[in-house]
Amino acid sequence: MLNVCSADSLRKVDIGGRRYRRCRPSVRRARVHVCVNGNAGCSLPHPCHPNPCHNRGICHISETYRGDTFIGYICKCPPGFSGVHCQHNINECERDPCKNGGICTDLVANYSCECPGEYMGRNCQYKCSGPLGMEGGIISNQQITASSTHRALFGLQKWYPYFARLNRRGLVNAWTAAENDRWPWIQINLQRRMRVTGLITQGAKRFGSAEYVKSYKVAYSDDGKTWRTYKVRSKDEDMIFRGNVDNNTPSASSFTPPIEAQYVRIYPQVCRRHCTLRMELLGCELSGCSEPMGMKSGHIQDYQITASSIFRTVNMDMFTWEPGKARLDKQGKVNAWTAGHSDQSQWLQVDLRVPTKVTGIITQGAKDFGRVQFVGSYKVAYSNDGERWITYQDEKQRKDKVFQGNFDNDTHRKNVIEPPIYARLIRILPWSWYGRITLRVEILGCTEEE
């Protein structure tokens, strides 16, 4: 063995009253020995060669001696291993990393979480069960198609597929397949691949008689041409979902594992009288970070919502359209925020209290004593301190991005923010409007864990 204890690399040490020389730690740490003064051999065994540490542990020499030789070492273990020689695989599942009912599986120096259908993320921390837009109108009429449409009263009454919206009201308030349609289906084009975790179904009444779907199958596709039917888990057998038992009570089914696709198709199997359906799809964006942050639910409190100005109808306090009312689907005579001025310097601000990943915004207009009012387009600005504001940019055009807003007072309009915003404060800057600047909103995103 090569003697690394050369004269220019030694320093004197006292061990038991005797004088020795020891290699400087900076000189080939993997070959460090204690050498008797003048010894030219220095070929004693090295405690870290071969490496006694398992699983890629790193061996470090300790200040322990036997006579004139280092004999002590310490194994620095990589994450996931423990023991004197890093020989033990730590069971990461013992600390319960999986949230919301997730099932933990211990792996070598790692773990995995099997999440319930409505949750996702490494630790099942992201909820993925929000409505995708049948009831609210985010899914447009053009995105909903079907195998056929039932026509009644000599063809004057048509039960179109785009009537298949959960809780739709009116005389004709659902989709019904034609009587001669032996294999009916209704299909939703989500316009991009999304994660679908569940479905809510509902029947309806036609001429006073209850009609509904008792059971159904589900298929999905990425291109609208090649379809896969949802299967019973671990079996090559089509899953048959239970539907409704009356015309009005919603019935929910969850998909575990969830569906990831652009197109979702429902195949009624057993129907009462006619195959009549109202429905809502549940899920989220593929990122999983698109849950409502709390405008509609009230989790975001009134004091967190501010605005540039406030409008009062007939200048009365009881008809004050304050920012705290700017909540998606808020009901009542005064049920939104309306700006006191109609110009492009107005804004509505939401303080999320902590830096948050924001992936989307849903907007809605309102009516003021029958007058339709809404924001037709808007910009978005964000900040972490309330002083320095950045306007969200269109990456391709390299200028402020103008988001499309609403076209009526009630329909939801969702805009995906990609790439997402990371900020505490979000401002919506109305750019065009109809009537007065009027908004009801929801912020979509998630608070990312460290």
UniProtKB/TrEMBL annotation:
Residues 128-284, 289-446 form the F5/8 type C domain. Keywords: Disulfide bond, EGF-like domain. Pfam families: EGF, F5_F8_type_C. GO terms for cellular component: plasma membrane. PROSITE patterns: ASX_HYDROXYL, EGF_1, EGF_2, EGF_3, EGF_CA, FA58C_1, FA58C_2, FA58C_3. GO terms for molecular function: calcium ion binding; signaling receptor activity. Residues 44-87, 89-125 form the EGF-like domain. CDD domains: EGF_CA, FA58C. Disulfide bonds join 77-86, 115-124. This is EGF like repeats and discoidin domains 3. It comes from Takifugu rubripes (Japanese pufferfish). The gene is edil3.
